[in-house]
Task: structure prediction
Amino acid sequence: MTIKQTAGRDQLGEFAPDFAHFNDDVLFGENWNNSDIDVKTRCIITVVALMAQGITDSSMKHHLQNAKANGVSKAEIAAVITHVAFYAGWPKAWAVFNLAKEVWNED
Result:
């Protein structure tokens, strides 16, 4: 599966074309398509990194949706968030659980 991202160009293409290029072509084009780590694992790593930083905005929701779409189950994401809560912080886990509940209940 090849991941193709256009959000950078769609949202910032004219305002910040270099950033858009790095976002779409390097981060998502090259990094996310590197086969050394499978996409499901990449999704989990990304959620953990965002949670550890306390990022619970639309980007976290997008990456939770991406994790679900790439095979992360509700039980798996609950276990990941619970585990990371002990290292990244309990309030961060609450915030991410609220988003995860929305995502896994979207069906």
Residues 40 and 103 are 16 Å apart (CA to CA).
